[in-house]
Each structure stands twice: as structure tokens, then as C-alpha cells.
């Protein structure tokens, strides 16, 4: 049985080989935890962003977008709390000299018990077949119950330590459960201490006149400081939302698992402003809408789950994560938070400006409460890629690697290929290519056998291959080949655009959301 770790390694290698993700500045041996998106990766990434952006700004009349600058006045980050409190608990191994996030080490420890439980359930499912009751097995299997009890015991201690900011207890958990350094294999740990994650730089032409500023660690503050600008110029009425897609930067010490945790990443955030007292209703609304947005892609409903926060941020009164089952376990892809009125109140205090909203229906002014939905583009990219990656055994001993992307997200929608490079077939294929490229991202391929060309397109997730052959020259029809089923059918050239459009249009996804 192939381990999930081996699958993940194959996925990373496939991403590079087929132009999805490259190590940044690789010719100089790269830069840790920084990646570049290749020609197919950027198309997939842009399609993910379009799916999110349009689902926010087209489907909701009361949600508009902005694009705030990365550089912001330094007081912004004092008001938001990032200067004083944006820290990670770090621990060093004295033998390897490597530094780790203490919370990640403990989360990985808990994940090992989750993996052990999953393996026991999987073995039992194979043993008992269709009669297997997974829920009952989890509560009656002595080994599973033991694993779950150990995991819950760690979780209870961990949650309390994080809530109390008890760095001594975090270290003690690591010692008690004999967590070893992945490099040295030893348990020779230092004390845990805090480390601020913001990148600092200077703006100004001279050393004396330079001002210390930060690369933004999140995109939300650009929305909050523009609340009044958007509300007044857009004549927005509560409730309304402001959406934004943009880069953020965090000096992550433990940056790993490919593009899951990086130092430069991209976020898709929407801050939804509501009346005080109505925040929990809207929290539930956006929690359900966002889960529906994910599941509509068809990657597998069982791959998603909610994870409510044990420790709430000081500004929040409710928080949950949408987690996706990555090759290395369930991990956060999106967060939904009820941020109360903390952010606007803080910026009002630090700026001295009156950041309030006058509600004509209530005939009173107030500082709105905020519901936040925040999704990592890169993590979403990884979840889509991981779910799509499939190794298939075919008849006759053949095999293929296929990326089963949702058609709307696929980097390339169709590949046009002449059967041979003569007798006018390439010219006809180019003619078809030119008729389709105004609506879809298409590629043209005339190298190697048709079979090899099919395999290349499977490997990048292209939903349709269009073969121009001698019959095309007689009756204006082509062979349309479907990626997932590998079935082929003859179809008139005149119908091609409509058939492809019906499959890849975002409208199909959006109709499931409303």
C-alpha cells in the first residue's frame, strides 16, 4: 500500500514536471518556503480566485471589492495588535540547532494518533466489507479507543496551554510525550519563547529620515481602514461586505509541507459588517455558505469538516475553520470568525477618527460588528491539486496519471490536435483553435502519437481533447475525447464551443450556491 507521504512526494514532483509550481529562484538553489507558480499553476490559481471573487461580488449585491496597498502606515499594525501580539511559540533543539514552532510539534503529535485511528478503521473496513459500521467501530475497538484517549488528553492540555499562553506547559507536553527533533532524533529541547512574525523594512530616502514599516501579515486591515471610504462612496447599507484578494507575508520559522505554509502567500478575505447583536446569525450564514462553496467543486464532501476553535482570539466571540483532508491529514484551508467591533474600535482610537455607521432604520449610530471569511489561495490550490491527482491502472497493463480538476478550474480547457502533420489537417486544427481561444484557454499539440498527447493532457488536467482527422475534412466533425471517462464521440465543429462552454462555465457552480 502506497503511503500518503509517498503520494505527497509524487504530487510535488508532478507539480514541477508539468508547470504548476517551481521552487523560487531555483537556479540559485532556491529560497526556503517560497515558490513560483508556473504556466499551468498560474491558470489554476487565477481560476480559483475568479471562482471566489465572482461568488462574492456577483452573487451578493451587498458585497463589493477593493485592492488595498501592501504598505500601510505603521500605526495600523499597532492598532491591530500585530506589533505586540503577533507571535509564535518557538523551541530549539540543542543538538541539531534547528528551530520549531512548539504548537506545530504538538499538533503533529496529535495527527499521528489521528493517522493511527484512520489506519485501524481502514483495515477493519476491508475486513468486514459492506456491513462495516465505522462510527460503532470507533467507539468499541479497544485500540482505537486507546488512541483517541491519548490524543484527547494531549488536546486538553494543549488547548489550555495555548489559551493561557503557558509556554512552560507547551514545553512540558513536548517532554512528556517524548517528541524528538526530526533532524537529530533527540529530545534535547530549549525553553519555549515568543517570536514576532512580521517582516520589517524601512521607507524613506535617507537613514535619518527612514520610517520603519511592515510587510502586511494579513489583508484584513486594508479593508478596515477603508470602511468609511467604501461605505460612503458606495452608499452601502448595513449589512454589507468588502472583499479583497492580495499578498501577505509572515516570517514563518516552520514553513513546510510544500505550499501549505509559506512566507509569501495570497489571501482571499471578505469582511462583512453587521448590526451589533446580529453577528451570530450572520456567522452561521457565512459558515454554511462557505462550506457549500467548497463542496460545490465536487472534490468529495467527506474531505471537509468544521473545526471550532478551542482558543478564541482576544477580539473574537466565535471562530471555526474549514479543514480539508490533505495528504498529510486534515488542515485548515479557511477561517470564519466573528471579530466583534474590535478592529474598527481600535482604528478609531489610534487614528482619532470617528468610525461609526448611522443606521437610518434604527435612527442611531454604532460601530458595526464584523464577520470574516478568510481563505488561503495557496492552501486552496493545494487542496484542489491533491484531490485531483489520480493514478489509474488501465486495461492491457497500461496506466496514466490524471488530474481530475473541476472543469471550471482546469488550467487548460481544451487541446486541439491534428491526427497527422500534413494534408491540411494542421491548418484545419488551427482554424478550430482560433475559433475557441476567445472563450477558453486552449493549447495546440501536434507532436508524438495521439495517445501520448492524450496522456500529456491528462497530466495537466485538460477536460477535452479535440482530434482533427481526415473525416473532419469531409463532414466538418471532430473527435471529442473526455478526460475522466476517456470516452470519445464525433461532434460537429459548430457545436464544439457550446459543449465546452456548458461544461466549464462558472454558472454551473454558481447555481448550486444560490
Describe this structure in words.
The structure is a single chain. The chain has 514 residues and is α+β, with helices and mostly antiparallel strands. It has three domains: 1-72 and 214-393, Bira Bifunctional Protein, Domain 2 (BirA Bifunctional Protein, domain 2), CATH 3.30.930.10; 87-196, 2-Layer Sandwich (Herpes Virus-1); 404-513, Anticodon-binding domain (Rossmann fold, 3-Layer(aba) Sandwich), CATH 3.40.50. The chain contains 18 helices and 23 strands. Strands 3-9-10-16-13-12-11 form a seven-stranded mixed β-sheet.
* Count of discrete alpha- or pi-helical segments spanning 4 or more residues: 18
Q: In what range is the share of β-strand residues?
A: 15-25%
CATH topology of the largest domain: BirA Bifunctional Protein, domain 2
Total of domains: 3
Radius of gyration based on Cα positions: 26 Å
Contiguous low-pLDDT stretches (5 residues minimum) are none
General shape: globular
Order of strands, widest sheet: 3-9-10-16-13-12-11
The CATH architecture category of the largest domain equals 2-Layer Sandwich
In whole angstroms, the N-to-C terminal distance is 41 Å
Question: What is the number of strand segments?
Answer: 23
If you average the pLDDT, what whole number results? 92
The CATH superfamily of the largest domain bears the name: Bira Bifunctional Protein, Domain 2
User: What is the CATH class designation of the largest domain?
Assistant: Alpha Beta
Helix content: 40-55%
Structural class: alpha+beta
Amino acid at each position: 500500500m502506497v503511503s500518503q507521504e509517498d503520494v505527497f512526494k509524487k504530487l510535488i514532483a508532478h507539480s514541477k514536471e508539468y508547470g504548476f509550481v517551481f521552487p523560487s529562484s531555483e537556479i540559485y538553489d532556491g529560497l526556503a518556503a517560497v515558490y513560483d507558480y508556473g504556466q499551468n499553476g498560474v491558470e489554476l490559481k487565477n481560476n480559483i480566485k475568479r471562482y471566489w471573487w465572482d461568488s462574492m461580488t456577483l452573487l451578493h449585491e451587498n458585497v463589493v471589492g477593493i485592492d488595498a496597498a501592501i504598505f500601510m502606515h505603521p500605526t495600523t499594525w499597532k492598532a491591530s495588535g500585530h506589533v505586540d501580539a503577533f507571535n509564535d511559540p518557538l523551541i530549539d533543539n540543542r543538538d541539531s540547532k534547528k528551530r520549531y514552532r512548539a504548537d506545530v510539534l504538538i499538533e503533529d503529535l496529535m495527527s499521528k494518533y489521528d493517522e493511527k485511528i484512520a489506519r485501524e478503521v481502514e483495515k477493519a473496513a476491508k475486513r468486514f466489507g459492506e456491513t462495516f459500521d465505522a462510527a460503532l467501530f470507533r467507539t468499541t475497538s479497544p485500540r482505537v479507543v486507546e488512541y483517541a484517549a491519548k490524543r484527547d488528553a494531549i488536546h486538553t492540555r494543549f488547548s489550555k496551554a495555548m489559551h493561557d499562553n503557558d509556554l512552560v506547559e507547551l514545553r512540558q507536553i513536548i517532554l512528556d510525550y517524548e517528541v524528538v527533533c526530526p533532524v537529530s532524533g533527540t529530545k534535547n529541547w530549549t525553553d519555549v519563547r515568543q517570536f514576532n512574525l512580521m517582516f520589517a523594512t524601512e521607507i524613506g530616502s535617507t537613514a535619518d529620515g527612514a520610517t520603519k514599516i511592515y510587510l502586511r501579515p494579513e489583508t484584513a486591515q486594508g479593508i478596515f481602514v477603508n470602511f468609511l471610504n467604501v461605505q460612503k462612496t458606495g452608499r452601502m447599507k448595513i449589512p454589507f461586505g468588502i472583499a479583497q484578494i492580495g499578498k501577505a507575508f509572515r516570517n514563518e520559522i516552520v514553513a513546510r509541507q510544500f505550499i501549505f505554509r509559506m512566507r509569501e502567500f495570497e489571501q482571499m478575505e471578505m469582511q462583512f459588517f453587521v448590526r451589533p447583536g446580529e453577528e451570530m446569525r450572520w456567522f452561521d450564514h457565512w459558515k454554511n455558505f462557505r462550506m457549500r462553496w467548497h463542496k460545490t467543486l465536487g472534490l468529495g464532501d467527506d474531505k471537509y469538516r468544521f473545526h471550532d476553535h478551542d482558543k478564541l482570539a482576544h477580539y473574537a466571540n466565535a471562530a471555526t475553520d474549514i479543514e480539508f483532508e490533505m495528504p498529510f491529514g486534515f488542515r485548515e484551508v479557511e477561517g470564519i470568525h466573528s471579530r466583534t467591533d474590535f478592529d474598527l474600535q481600535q482604528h478609531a482610537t489610534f487614528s482619532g477618527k470617528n468610525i461609526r455607521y448611522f443606521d437610518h432604520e434604527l435612527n442611531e449610530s454604532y460601530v458595526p460588528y464584523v464577520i470574516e471569511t478568510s481563505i488561503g489561495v495557496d492552501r486552496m490550490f493545494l487542496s484542489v491539486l491533491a484531490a485531483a491527482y489520480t493514478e489509474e491502472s488501465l486495461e492491457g497493463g497500461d496506466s496514466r496519471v490524471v488530474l481530475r480538476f473541476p472543469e471550471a478550474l482546469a488550467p487548460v480547457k481544451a487541446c486541439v490536435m491534428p491526427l497527422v502533420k500534413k494534408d491540411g489537417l494542421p491548418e484545419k486544427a488551427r482554424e478550430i483553435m482560433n475559433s475557441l481561444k476567445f472563450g477558453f484557454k486552449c493549447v495546440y499539440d501536434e507532436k508524438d502519437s495521439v495517445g501520448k498527447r492524450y496522456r500529456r493532457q491528462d497530466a495537466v488536467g485538460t477536460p477535452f481533447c479535440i482530434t482533427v482527422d481526415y473525416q473532419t475534412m469531409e463532414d466538418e466533425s471532430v473527435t471529442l475525447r473526455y478526460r475522466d471517462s476517456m470516452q470519445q464521440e464525433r461532434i460537429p465543429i459548430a457545436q464544439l464551443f457550446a459543449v465546452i462552454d456548458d461544461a466549464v462555465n462558472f454558472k454551473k457552480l454558481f447555481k448550486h450556491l444560490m
